[in-house]
């Protein structure tokens, strides 16, 4: 067997969802909404199936979706994109991340990754024979340690992987953070793979700023989006990469050997979704922020320390005040099995020397479900 894959183990999201099912727990672990996204987008996918959109679509995505992605880049961020050469549609952001890393990394290259990190990043960097340089954000406010970030860059650095809004912390990198990162990329002549799947799931009046929109960054960034997140349809697995043509071509080369194409009916429906009015996108953030507030208040009342979250589906909590004896993995197992609520241990987002007193809860659920989860936990603690 491939020794690297053999060593990875099953993703924590699958492990905790299975445990939740086994114990009939409310699943606030794996991040997926319990209400499907817009009916017109779903209807468009169904209609497209009946409409004969069932054979291989073009390698880089159907024209309508590439055009819709280009238009969204311009509408939301003022980024001008050529839909013919600068957009690649992938089977989810997961494939987009892998294809982007494949497009850039050679064996011996270094990639700067920021901890806590989404669990796809590191195994792919390593499989490509590259080395990760890890920079750790400092809880509880997840500050970017600038001197350490700077020190992680060197002659072998090829890219930085930036996830904002960030999973699991809910951190939105500030304008200052982004400017600092942009200066480093320019100085060291590096690229950025920008995982922006939560671009529209952002709260409290903040506005998402793609690193790509900063001066000098248009040619250095591969910007990744996900219809799963933007339309609350996580099973659809439609992702898209926006990148300068030279890099988009390489992403497409990777894509042709990973999946080659992505279901055309879903692509058509996502193109219709991306053309929705501004009110739809704004409501994504307001609706989710209300859910965040309900869960955060409930968990605080129980005794958790709830860390701030400005975006994504998630809040991280410090469960130390509850007096539980055991680490975060034991804690998340315990509440799944005995309180009937599943969460994700945040140590899963660190390859080594992880903090072990944080649990991540997903709040992308109906209000009644969130309240039931809070009730269950408060009865238990
Ligand atoms: N990146 C991050 C940070 C995520 O949280 C997720 C969520 N699943 C993904 C990528 C993958 O997105 P997709 O489901 O579109 O593959
Ligand atoms: N991104 C989702 C999360 O963080 C899970 C996706 C997956 O299960 N791979 O919960």
TrEMBL record:
Residues 26-377 form the Aminotransferase class I/classII large domain. It comes from Acidiphilium rubrum. GO terms for cellular component: cytoplasm. InterPro entries: Aminotransferase_I/II_large, Kynurenine-oxoglutarate_AT, PyrdxlP-dep_Trfase, PyrdxlP-dep_Trfase_major, PyrdxlP-dep_Trfase_small. Its cofactor is pyridoxal 5'-phosphate. Belongs to the class-I pyridoxal-phosphate-dependent aminotransferase family. SUPFAM superfamilies: PLP-dependent transferases. CDD domains: AAT_like. One of its GO terms (molecular function) is kynurenine-oxoglutarate transaminase activity. This is Aspartate/methionine/tyrosine aminotransferase. Keywords: Aminotransferase, Pyridoxal phosphate, Transferase. NCBIfam families: PRK08912.1.
